[in-house]
Amino acid sequence: MKPEPLEEYNDMNEAAVAKWKSETTTRERIKAIITRTTEPTPASEIAEKARASKPVVRDELNELTELGLVEKIDGGQGALYKRNDQMYIYQQVLKLHDEYSEDELIGTLQELKQTVQDIRTKYNVESPAELAQQLDPDDQDGWDDHTTWQTAQKNLYLAKAAISFYDAQKVVA
């Protein structure tokens, strides 16, 4: 006989949310949601996703706006919020700079450039967009290469920026 799941956890999403709420603070949940919010979004929607009250979310979003981590946009019928992409990029670059040496970043940069060059050569195209136009809908390997190229391109930009931080340190030291 198979044990019956607890009624309150019949839905796995509910169980994951309950665990997330028990393991994080309201502030952590709000930050986690706003970090992934790339389109202007009302505080009420962020509150729902963060499983937090609207007044607490509004207060936290206003504080994060003052810190420059969040953009507040006049939505006509109320404020909308999204992450500040410039600060998000800056945080990603600083994280790379802190976690990897200059030599490691240069090695990664070389690998990423090789990955992009290999895909360019394989398909004889110059961009991920051009590759997407030539792929058949059921060409799984091709679409995997497309995703790899887009990811490598994004990581190239971040690695270059992190290397630039090392260069800047040499100038100001």
Automatic annotation (TrEMBL):
* Pfam families linked to this entry: DUF7342
| InterPro entries the record matches | ArsR-like_HTH, DUF7342, WH-like_DNA-bd_sf, WH_DNA-bd_sf
- Which branch of life, at top level? Archaea
Q: What is this protein called?
A: ArsR family transcriptional regulator
